[in-house]
Amino acid sequence: MSLILTFLGKGGTGRTTVAIAAAKQLASQGKRVLLAGQGTDPVLSLILGATLGPDPQELATNFQGVQFQTAQLLERSWEEIKQLEAQYLRTPIVKEVFGQELGVLPGMDSALALNALREYDTSGKYDAIVYDGTGDQTMLRMLGMPEIVSWYIRRFRNLFLNSDLGKTVSPFIQPVASAVLNVNWGEDNFAQPTNQVNNLLDQGKDAVANPNRMAAYLVTTGDPTAVATAKYLWGSAQQIGLTVGGVILNQATMADTVAAEVAQNLAQVYETFDRETAAIDIVTAEFAPLSAIAIPTRTGGDWQPLINAMPDFRQAYRAPKPIEIDIPARQVRLFLPGFDKKQVKLTQNGPEVTIEAGDQRRNIFLPPQLSGQSVKGAKFQNSYLTISF
Fold first, then answer.
1. What is the signed CA dihedral for 127, 130, 136, 142, rounded to 10 degrees?
2. Which of 23, 81, 160, 219 could form a disulfide with 9, with the two C-beta atoms 3.0–4.6 Å apart?
């Protein structure tokens, strides 16, 4: 299994440059690294000085690069879907459909990219995968897809089986299913068709929730809008269980007018004017308790200063955990930075608790010791939501 790294931040903050430097650093440490870019945007290839395609290509020792392209990924995945259909249906129906016809569906790019990351991760060819995605809410929804889809499967299954319709048609399903499906229809009418999907979803959820398997880093400049965007993405990442290991201040754009004005105002308080020092102070204060580092401007093709400035990505696990469950205290604590009390909503449905914060929703499946217990209280303080049972 690989370590998967990705970067979050406002467009124009230098996420792609940071991703390349991170990949180069890991490769220099002897790790087998894959740098994966999203879409057909030429920026990644231009900065690398090499044209990336849909298949991994060697860029340097221990260092390969690939550009995810929807059409190619869809064709590969479509063949797998046809095989699954042939496994479960006696008369397959999608074999006449071409994969390209589905490329227009909303969210298809994200789903295919997530599946490609999973395949490269399980291939055993790489020690680390650096994913240069969109770095925004869309990418976070992609990484949170296993949890969301798993929740909907559970909800649909329970709603159907407990409904009057489900109880009424259940005795008649067996003969119909035997005629259509290549599976035996057992006591749990949904078990066999969904087991394989659920296993993949569980693997995805476990990977996202494990900081030794997957972590994100925030990238920002001194621009207040970039800082605010990074803070919002920080909280949103926590909502899908993704650990944010730290924040990287890109000094390459410190000449921006707004950033200079903010730094100058802060510097006047200390009767000095050091724009870069002021910016890192702002970022350190805004993102506490995350560790914050500043990286220098890249000069020409010299990547070494950036490589040397990269954080130790193996220390991501030291960052605050998105969720902690304290069974003896009968409490669940969620770290939700970037949000205030008015933006957080809590609901409970059976053994699950749903947390809405901003534009993200998280479903917490309670452990057996707390399952079935009603929420007795909730408190939001110092960016932590504490739920008591």
1. -40
2. 219
State which CATH number among 3.40.50.300, 3.40.120.10, 3.40.50.150, 1.10.1740.10 fits the domain covering 3-72+103-147+206-318. 3.40.50.300
**How many residues appear in the chain?**
389
Distance, CA of 166 to CA of 3 (rounded, Å): 43
pTM of the model: 0.78
CATH architecture designation of domain 323-388: Sandwich (2.60)
Which residues, 6 or more positions from 388, have their beta carbon under 8 angstroms from its beta carbon?
A: 330, 331, 375, 376, 377, 378, 379
pLDDT digits (tens, 9 = 90+) for 18-42: 999 999 999 999 999 999 998 777 8
Domain boundaries of the chain, sorted by first residue: 3-72+103-147+206-318, 323-388
User: Which H helix or E strand runs over 325?
Assistant: strand 323-326
